[in-house]
Write a structure and sequence with these properties.
The structure is a single chain. By secondary structure, this protein is mainly alpha-helical. Helices cover 71% and strands 0% of the residues. The protein starts with a helix and ends with a helix.
Length: 404
């Protein structure tokens, strides 16, 4: 009887522990409670360690490791991945200064396996579980940023490396912070946990809750869930626009919540979304839709590809730009996943950018607008917004996987 009771208690504890390990950022009340406790602790420590960068870094590292170990899915897998990235950085960045395709391949190898196994038959399920790590895509990008930007810096400790990669508010889907910006906040210690940042964070919090849990949830529950696929063209058209607005409010809401709790904890998480549907061209769109991803793609995909093509002296400048743009967005599609709808969506965004870049080039060369002619700037602006909005809606619809 005693052994049965003991077994039952152990099983109950294990079940509770496993349930806790289902807490992704901003997915349930447990995560908000955890961050609220972390913020409160930060204010308590602030009184004693106001300007201590080391104490502040220790605090952020402890917050991150506690979240990973207590709440995050597959904590051992994620921590192992961070060790893997730090080993590559310490051995091949600062010691050997490896650059180019070979080092990129090392960093994205786990991500490649995760994406590949998603599209392979179910018999790979056991292997799949090893590489299926939440946040792997964004962590891989952050690792690459550290490798290329921080190779000449003084030795980076594992503690700061881990705190940056595992910072709970931005862990899952960004915004994609930069290591040097993150460490600038750390350098001034707990002084960044102050009334000014708290007030800014509170404004982000209110807007994020409104976006994600009210507007996005309403679009999903009241519109998307009631669309009838038997209505053919009307269904596809309705789903295309409703999904676009749902994705925006859900994703922008998440980013605002990440900014809110980042500011509460003293980390000034960069802005990610800013009226993207008013953009007049693809370049402007990516400055306002997931801006941190657009900046990352520009710095670590587009520029190196364009530079490599220029070095080889192949094609002319506008052709090189077009090739680099198309490859950049195609790679973004593969980064989202190896499923066809992700790849085609990325390629479409690449086509939009290539077409606009060539159009802009021809307009400058001829000294006039080759499409809109003598139309007023107001009308041209309206038509540009309208065309791009619908082009984005179509590409995002393909991204959703609803069409194929």
């Amino acid at each position: 009887m005693g052994e049965s009771f003991l077994t039952f208690e152990i099983n109950s504890v294990l079940v509770s522990y496993l349930n806790l390990h289902n807490t992704l950022p901003f997915s349930n009340a447990q995560f908000f409670i955890f961050l609220a406790l972390a913020v409160f602790t930060g204010f308590v420590f602030r009184k004693k360690y106001l300007n201590s960068a080391n104490a502040y870094l220790n605090f952020l590292a402890i917050v991150s490791i506690c979240y990973i170990l207590l709440l995050y899915t597959k904590p051992i897998h994620f921590i192992s991945f961070v060790f893997y990235g730090y080993f590559i950085f310490s051995q091949f960045s600062q010691k050997r200064n490896w650059k180019g395709v070979k080092i990129v391949s090392l960093y994205i190898l786990p991500l490649f396996f995760m994406k590949l196994l998603n599209v392979l038959p179910e018999f790979t399920l056991n292997i799949h579980s090893i590489f299926q790590i939440a946040g792997l895509s964004y962590a891989s990008f952050k690792m690459l940023q550290i490798h290329f930007d921080e190779s000449a810096s003084s030795k980076i400790s594992f503690k700061s490396y881990f705190a940056f990669l595992a910072f709970p508010p931005t862990l899952l889907i960004g915004p994609i912070d930069r290591f040097d910006r993150f460490t600038k906040n750390i350098a001034v210690g707990f002084s960044t946990i102050n009334a000014e940042n708290f007030n800014k964070g509170f404004n982000f919090l209110i807007k994020g809750l409104l976006f994600k849990y009210i507007i996005a949830a309403a679009i999903n529950q009241l519109i998307i869930n009631h669309l009838n696929s038997e209505n053919g063209f009307v269904f596809h058209l309705s789903y295309m626009y409703s999904y676009l607005f749902y994705l925006f409010f859900d994703f922008a809401g998440y980013s605002l919540l990440a900014m809110a709790f980042g500011y509460f904890l003293g980390i000034q998480v960069p802005f990610n979304f800013d009226k993207p549907f008013l953009a007049k061209n693809p370049k402007e769109f990516w400055r306002h839709w997931h801006k941190t991803l657009g900046d990352w793609l520009n710095d670590y995909f587009f520029k190196p590809i364009f530079k490599a093509l220029t070095k080889k002296k192949v094609f002319n400048s506008i052709q090189r730009q077009g090739i680099a743009l198309f490859l950049t967005f195609t790679l973004m599609g593969f980064w989202n996943g190896f499923e066809l709808h992700f790849i085609v969506s990325g390629m479409l965004f690449g086509c939009y950018s290539v077409i606009h870049n060539y159009y802009d080039y021809k307009c400058k060369k001829k000294g006039k607008d080759i499409i809109f002619g003598e139309l007023s700037s107001g009308i041209v602006g309206f038509l540009s917004v309208f065309i791009l909005f619908n082009a984005v809606a179509f590409s995002i619809y393909i991204f959703s996987g609803k069409l194929f």
